[in-house]
């Protein structure tokens, strides 16, 4: 079990991680979500004792990472894909890692075939594509057959096939009873893989709950409709106490609307409907709303492209 | 510690730069020493009486170390610098979070590789050099000669360990090499010829260390080969200690 307690990291006058506390549930995939620059990677590096926290602690089964004996057998981590000497082969990279934690050499061949790199195992890793580098990083994480796995943005740079492969792998690892902690800046990616969700923004905890609960609390459902005669329909709505708002697309949205009731009402008033459909706002929107105030690099209002030449004409 | 050492050994033996730098160190030192010995012998009759009086055939035959040490410095700096420039240091520390053990293992690997290479380099340089010096040659059994040949190997090894410490300190190989190369190749030799400043420059690691390769005490330097070894060793300990202190404290 991993417990993060009041973890804080300060770079100069900037707080990258701000009194972050959470516990990672065992045996499931936990998504660690936040916009770019939210402090996800910094947090993960501190969990592995690579970066020194300004204050706060991380405990793995009650111990500091540095106190673990042969840590690769406890935790396997994929941090950045290319943490490999380009002149060394994938096989030799895994070989020194295995030696450092007294992992039997046959495991090297096992994980290479598990990630599909056997054919290129003896080639210099400098020639690897981003996707192959990512696979090598995952092989390194799996080397010690650890109970806990940490992946920092594992699908970055992967082709669609690779993305599906990583998703399946994470789910498989969790079904085997392992704890999987995976970071992403994409809610849609997490919705497909994670059972539990930890959301941070500007280094602060924004949400820590099961994925289902997050979906229930954050997804908005509404009914969308289109009509050639909006005035008549809106009159009928106001008589029935229904509020409809115009969306940007010329359609109307009724929050938590009852489709049958709206359809009957339109029919009773003789208004034609061109669309009547149930809608669910995406989790992506919920996530964006939640982190809107904490986004690190926000753009200003839409820039006035071409304002110079427009003035002249 | 055994596991960490084995892992570090696999690291150095699975990249080409290790062998390239060590082979270069051997051939550059031996080659330059042979050239110096050959031309000294050719031109011996033209040497001034004072030059003849202070002529030391052993030191002449080991002269290539001055250039060959640069390859050894590159080797030692890359042992740690490569990890920082490739990001591999994070994989290393995730596998071995005990930073003291990691530094110790790297120091032992540098010691274990550079010492035999520089012993071979020193002895081959000496025998080849003496053969080329003709009638002016020294014997290994002459006073101070064997110690000087061993001292030359010890010097190369200590300079490598010192460079490893600096490598831990500065992390980026370009930075470490940019400091060490000009220092040992230019700045230190120049300073040691500037009046007054040279009294301090004598204590620089390379100046003090090269005393180890002298057969007799240099009258211009206030200490002998033994003290030179100790001073050089203190520089190594200091560089590794400061390197370790920062390595422990810093983010990887």
From TrEMBL, chain A:
Keyword terms, alphabetized: ATP-binding, Nucleotide-binding, Transport
Listed SUPFAM superfamilies: P-loop containing nucleoside triphosphate hydrolases
TM region positions: none
All residue ranges annotated as the ABC transporter domain in the record: 2-227
GO molecular function, one term: ATP hydrolysis activity
PROSITE patterns in the cross-refs: ABC_TRANSPORTER_2 (PS50893)
Alphabetical list of SMART domains matching this protein: AAA
Domain of life from the UniProt record: Bacteria
Record's keyword annotation contains ATP-binding: yes
Keyword Iron: no
Family indicated by similarity: Belongs to the ABC transporter superfamily.
Record protein name field: ABC-2 type transport system ATP-binding protein
Originating organism: Streptacidiphilus jiangxiensis
TrEMBL record, chain B:
Record-linked Pfam families: ABC2_membrane_4
Domain of life from the UniProt record: Bacteria
Record keywords, A-Z: Membrane, Transmembrane, Transmembrane helix
TM annotation in the entry: 20-40, 60-81, 102-128, 148-170, 177-194, 227-247
Keyword Metal-binding: no
Protein's recorded name: ABC-2 family transporter protein
Organism: Streptacidiphilus jiangxiensis
């Amino acid at each position: 079990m991993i417990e993060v307690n009041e973890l804080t990291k300060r770079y100069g006058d900037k707080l990258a991680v701000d009194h972050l506390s959470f516990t990672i549930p065992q045996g499931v995939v936990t998504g660690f979500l936040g916009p770019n620059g939210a402090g996800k990677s910094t947090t993960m590096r501190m969990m592995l004792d690579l970066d020194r926290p300004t204050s706060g602690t991380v405990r793995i089964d009650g111990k500091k990472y540095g106190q673990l004996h042969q840590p690769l057998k406890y935790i396997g981590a994929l941090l950045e894909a290319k943490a490999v000497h380009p002149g060394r082969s994938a096989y030799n990279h895994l070989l020194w890692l295995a030696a450092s934690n007294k992992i039997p050499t046959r495991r090297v061949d096992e994980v290479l075939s598990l990630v599909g790199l056997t054919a290129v195992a003896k080639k210099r890793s400098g020639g690897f594509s981003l996707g192959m580098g990512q696979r090598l990083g995952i092989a390194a994480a799996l080397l010690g057959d650890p109970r806990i796995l940490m992946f920092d943005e594992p699908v970055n740079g992967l082709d669609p096939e690779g993305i599906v492969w990583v998703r399946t792998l994470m789910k498989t690892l969790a079904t085997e009873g392992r704890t999987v902690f995976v970071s992403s800046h994409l809610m849609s990616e997490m919705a497909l893989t994670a059972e539990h969700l930890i959301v941070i923004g500007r280094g602060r905890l924004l949400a820590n709950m099961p994925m289902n609960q997050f979906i229930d609390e954050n997804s908005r459902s509404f009914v969308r409709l289109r009509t050639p005669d909006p005035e008549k329909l809106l009159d009928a709505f106001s008589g029935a106490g229904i509020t409809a708002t115009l969306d940007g697309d010329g359609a109307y949205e009724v929050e938590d609307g009852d489709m049958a009731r709206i359809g009957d009402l339109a029919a009773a008033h003789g208004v034609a409907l061109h669309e009547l459909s149930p809608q669910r706002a995406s989790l992506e929107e919920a996530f964006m709303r939640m982190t809107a105030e904490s986004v690190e690099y926000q753009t200003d209002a839409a820039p006035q492209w071409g304002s110079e030449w427009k003035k002249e004409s | 510690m055994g596991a960490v050492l084995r892992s570090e050994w696999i690291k150095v033996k699975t990249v080409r730069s290790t062998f390239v730098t060590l082979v270069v160190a051997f051939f550059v030192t031996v080659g330059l020493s042979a050239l110096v010995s050959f031309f000294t012998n050719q031109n011996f009759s033209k040497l001034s009486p004072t030059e003849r009086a202070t002529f030391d055939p052993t030191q002449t035959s080991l002269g290539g170390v001055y250039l060959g040490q640069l390859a050894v410095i590159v080797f030692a700096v890359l042992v740690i610098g490569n990890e920082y420039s490739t990001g591999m240091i994070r994989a290393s520390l995730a596998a071995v979070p005990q930073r003291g053990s990691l530094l110790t293992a790297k120091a032992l690997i540098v010691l274990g590789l550079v010492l035999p290479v520089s012993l071979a380099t020193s002895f081959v340089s000496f025998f080849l050099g003496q053969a080329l010096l003709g009638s002016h040659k020294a014997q290994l059994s002459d006073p101070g000669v064997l110690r000087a040949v061993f001292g030359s190997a010890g010097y190369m090894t200590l300079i490598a360990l010192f460079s490893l410490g600096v490598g831990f300190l500065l992390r980026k190989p370009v930075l470490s090499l940019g400091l060490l190369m000009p220092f040992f190749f230019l700045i230190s030799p120049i300073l040691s010829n500037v009046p007054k400043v040279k009294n301090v420059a004598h204590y620089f690691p390379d100046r003090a260390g090269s005393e180890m390769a002298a057969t007799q005490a240099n009258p211009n330097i206030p200490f002998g080969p033994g003290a030179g070894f100790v001073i050089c060793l203190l520089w190594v300990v200091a560089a590794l200690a400061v390197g370790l202190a920062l390595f422990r404290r810093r983010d990887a």
